Amino acid sequence: MTTYDDRASRTDLTTTAERIRRSVESVIEGKPEVVRLSLTVLLAEGHLLIEDVPGVGKTMLAKALARSIDCSVRRIQFTPDLLPSDITGVSIFDQQRRDFEFKPGAIFAQIVIGDEINRASPKTQSALLESMEERQVTIDGQTYELPSPFMVVATQNPVEMEGTYPLPEAQRDRFMARVSIGYPSPEAELQMLDVHGGVSPLDDLQPVAHAHEIVKLIDAVRSVHVADAVRRYAVELVTATRSHPDLRLGASPRATLHLLRAAKASAALSGREYALPDDVQALAVAVLAHRLLPTAQAQLNRRTAEQVVLDILQRTAVPATKAPDGGFGSGRRTPQPGGSAYHQQPGPRRL
User: The pTM is what?
Assistant: First the structure.
């Protein structure tokens, strides 16, 4: 039974999310799908990897999201000489106290912006593994909890390979979703010239939500109902990646968990208290593709991981899930390879 508090929580979620969305879109023009995916990852307690060519607004998207929320923000510029202690912190001996004192690193913030993460060495990249998965940092045998909410928004350039270190599979698997912003439309680019021509819109951007509000919204997302049929559908999609002939590495069980969490957040952003197969479909490419490794033959045939996920979506039967309100899931929504946007198209038979 849905209580008054539950309805109030969903209303607060959609209202607060709408404020954040409008705030970010005042800086990032013409990319509503990208902004929605960023909000989805935030409310699903995940981390976001923004991967695209230079100059399309990767860092600006991360900054706009961070400044729209009244919380602690730290930016890390990843370089080859960056040390793990610069991220996690270090214990320094205090001469007066005759004891070691812990100096927190840049990871001790609620939103951490990692700019050009693939420019740091693998040793430095590995400093993020514990914090991204367990939301804690261990230094000299002492464990320190990270604040809540906690989100890492990292950017990387996929075309410039000079002086870069590709992210290892363990690191990529900790990012809930990957998004490519893409080039703006001519109309959006023309509007950008007017808005960004004088001063940066980030200068006037004010917080529209508080950190404690985000924590409450995250709690509301956790309570979103997921039917057994939707759970099985998510598992079938992920399992199909592990036996696909074009892949030498499929998605992990963590990917299944991330896909389900993201689907719940997407449902909440849509004002629903239950997730549908549509939510899973719309997020499949963004959540799964960056974790997959195509075979050498697939690469020769120019088959991308995004195309493989789309192929799996077409081949996997979609369950007709009955919602708690008596409604059924709607038509198939297939994500486009370039991002989280989707278009309507006929799907396979329903069970």
Answer: 0.86
